[in-house]
Amino acid sequence: MFSKRNVLIAFMIIIALGILTLSLIYDNVDDVKEDKKTSVKIGVSIYNQYDTFISSLVNHLTEHAKYLEQEKGITITLDMSNAGRNQITQNYQVENYIREDYDIICVNLVDRTDASVAIDMAMKADIPIIFFNRELVEKDLQRWDKLFYVGAVALESGIMQGQIVVDYCKKHFMEIDKNVDRVLQYVILEGEPTHQDALIRTEYVIDTITEAGINVEKLGDEIANWNRAQAETKMSQWLKSIPNEIEIVIANNDDMALGAIDAIKKENIMDPPIVVGIDGTKVGLEAVYNGDMIGTVYNDAKGQAEGIIELAYSLAFDEELPEEIELIEGKYIRKPHIIVTPDNVEEYMK
Ligand code: GAL
Question: Does the beta carbon of 51 sit less than 6 angstroms from any atom of ligand 1?
Answer without folding.
Answer: yes
